[in-house]
Amino acid sequence: MNKIEHLENNTDIIVAAHRGLKSDYPENTLLAFQKALESEVDMLEFDLRLSKDGVVVVIHDDTLDRTTNGSGQVSDYTLAELKQLDAGAWFDPVFEGLKIPTLEELCTLLNAYPEVLLNVEVKPSRHAKEVADKAVAMLEDYGYLQRCVFTSFDAAIIAYLHDSYQLKTQGFPAELMTNFDSGPDGTYSKMWVVGISMKLLTPKIVKDFLDLGIKSWSYCPDVDQQVYYSLECGVALMTCNNPRPAMRIRHEIATAAQPLNKEMS
Questions:
Q1: Quick one: which of 20, 40, 109, 168 has the fewest CB in 10 Å?
Q2: Are strands 56-58 and 117-122 parallel, antiparallel or unpaired?
Q3: CA–CA separation, 16 vs 237, rounded Å?
Q4: What local confidence, expressed as pLDDT, does residue 10 receive?
Q5: CB neighbours (10 Å) of residue 147?
Q6: 103-110 and 128-141 are packed helices; what angle lies between their axes, rounded to 10 degrees?
Q7: Nearest Cα residue to 177 out of 205, 204, 160, 157
Q8: Domains in the chain: ranges and CATH
Q9: How far apart are CA 130 and CA 177, in angstroms?
Q10: How far is CA 259 from CA 86, 164, 199, 247, in A?
Q11: Residues annotated as part of the active site
């Protein structure tokens, strides 16, 4: 089994699928995750919220309007009500009938992929701590916890996951987070990794975080130029909407290195 600690000193390109293979399939659906897994990505990133009756579900927005045929707050609907909604046709009519998955359904899918790492994003909400507690318990029950990094834009949740569970966390630059604590024992001290958008990514910001002992991952380098730029900035783990460019470039780099490795051996 792969473990998140294996990334501690990693320099190889690691490719994470952002909300599944969302360039081609409706995001955060089991189909998008299945297709990402079949494409042999290294990591899945997904978003967690809570239904009205306390079930952890996989959906990005706090409302249903963008990615389903429903409307209103996710947390105002029971799981049974959420399961009545269509979560595919908004992307393309061919995907009509796809549903909002539960975390448990995703965990079941992951049984066949023990090497895939997991980036578990707890979305900011009044239920975020409950989501975190339930997600940690379920992922532990499935034996997946050692494969996980936990992400949030809410610095209070980063601190909670770090302090309560001693888990590895991914936060973001201070200006992007709520409840950020700038003190010496504050938010940055509880972050293992920082996620940096392509808009903010520079060699300097990567170095500044490295000086704080925090690794940098990028999101979302979806074309060749962005992948190469991430590498130039010193970033090897990339969370992509479209993983294909990063995976192809990784293959090209590995292939080019093979003759050199043979010469040196």
A1: 40
A2: unpaired
A3: 7
A4: 87
A5: 25
A6: 30
A7: 157
A8: 4-264 (3.20.20.190)
A9: 19
A10: 51, 48, 36, 20
A11: 18, 60
Q: Please state, in angstroms and rounded to a whole number, the distance separating the CA atoms of residues 80 and 84.
A: 7
Long-range CB pairs of 245-252 (<8 Å, 24+ gap) are 245/221, 246/13, 246/15, 246/221, 247/15, 247/39, 247/40, 247/41, 249/13, 249/224, 250/12, 250/13, 250/15
DSSP 8-state symbol, 101: P
Query: By the 8 A CB rule, do 13 and 243 touch?
Result: no
- The amino acid at 264: M
Q: Is 54 left (phi over 0), alpha (psi -120 to 50) or beta?
A: left
Confidence of residue 262 (pLDDT cuts 50, 70, 90): low
- Within 99-180, strands assigned E span 117-122, 148-151, 169-171
> Quick one: how far is CA 161 from the chain centroid?
16
- Block residue for tokens 């630059």: 173
- Specify whether the CB–CB gap between 206 and 196 falls below 8 A: yes
What would the pLDDT profile of 33-74 be if each residue is shown by its tens digit? 999 999 999 999 999 999 999 999 999 999 999 999 999 999
Cα separation of 242 and 247, whole Å? 10
At residue 94, what is the residue type? V
Tell me the β-bridge partners of 171.
Answer: 194
The model's pLDDT over 208-240, given as tens digits with 9 standing for 90+, comes to 999 999 999 999 999 999 999 999 999 999 999
pTM of the model: 0.96
Q: Are 150 and 117 in contact (CB under 8 A)?
A: no
- Residue 153 in tokens: 């834009």
